User: Fold this.
Amino acid sequence: MNTVSLKSTKLVLALVAAGAIGGAGVSLVQTGLAHAAAPVVATVPATPGVPMALPDFSQITAQYGPAVVNISVTSVASAEDQAEIAQQQGQDDPFGNDPFFEFFKRFQGQQGQQQGRGQRPNAPRQMVRGQGSGFIVGADGTILTNAHVVRDAKEVTVKLTDRREYVAKVLGSDPKTDIAVLKIDAKNLPVVTLGKVSDLRVGEWVLAIGSPFGFENTVTAGVVSAKGRSLPDDSSVSFIQTDVAVNPGNSGGPLFNTRGEVVGINSQIYSRTGGYQGVSFAIPIDLAGKIKDQIVAHGKVEHARLGVAVQEVNQTLADSFKLDKPEGALVSAVDKNGPAAKAGLEPGDVIRKVNGQPIVSSGDLPSAISLSTPGETVKLDIWRKGEPVQIDARLGSLNDKASKVANSDEGAQKGKLGLALRPLAPDELRSAGVPAGLLIEEAGGAAANAGVNPGDVLLAINGTPVRSVEQVRAAVAKSDKSVALLIQRGEDKIFVPVRLG
Assistant:
């Protein structure tokens, strides 16, 4: 069971406070090769006043439904799982009734079977039976599903549509992308056809096949609501958002396009209740395919790493860095010994493309890097001090050290900068681990409204390092609308946008 970071819950609570979601609690719930079929509907532009025919998914269901499997799992419940089981059974939460516990829940039907009455925390753990879905990608019995479906599994059973059952071996799983690969001892099995997410269009019809609540081979349909969604769970997955009805038991099942190609793996939903409420997320199949290939070849997955901390570019930051629009991943910190530092990336750079792929939000960067492999060289289009620059970076391995993604949602209000600054003494510079900077002794006005606090260390303005108060005054005097302050608070560095009067 994933734990919830304060960063993640802040995002959801902010949405609730703003009225975008509503006052109820919001949960992010994880849902537990042949020739392509002929298109079911013609791809033609809409004609005003002429109704378009709805798709008929019966052909896809008949052809590829047999390649979708039901997965039953027996596992030992973790402490968090036992707390959830207790809540579902109306018992007291033995782990403090954490109000954020429901934010991340496995989208996988589970039933706890207690191994004795009056269990204490140090008593034997409960056995849990769970259900999910999967689909066959190899006629030799290779199956794709979600990693959370088979997490901590003691036994995994795969049931085909013809009612045959097999005990499956978990070849490997990758919790970071929530992908797992299973293998059953069978031959000449029906398989799905894999498509390309790049060909998928927003508004296009899609359908899911899975086992919601254990109802095997259930078919539901909807449309692609959005692509490239980054969710507040530190994931490196750029999700496909749909309005296809998926529920507990759909975990790991395929998402088909109208050509009968699998374009995603149903994985998560946003929900206030734990059930489907119109917003579902699927893992892109191209990412899943890369993870599968690594697991089959090596039994494990190695993720690429750039070695930067990045944050979102809002309008104030875009104005500060003279960007034409608030897009990209703003580099707030660079690992001194990481691939980014060796390539010449600097704090204040805005990464706008990776290998030609646009980076619109900061979450797009880890998603783009995850499609690469350690040792691969990627071409970065960046914005540096008002000019476009291209940099080639040779990626490292995420196993060495994890990258960070920082969020800065604090809004800046109108007013003066409002900072009382002094240079850091030599011992303070050593303690902070920086070559230069100014200690913020007092914060008021626009800077305080933007989230700057006394005790923060000011390192740079608009990407230019500062060593004196005079440099700060000069930078503010040259700025028309806003400035971007790079501050260090403890071990964290982040750009704070400050809107000037």
Q: What stands out?
A: The radius of gyration is 25 Å.
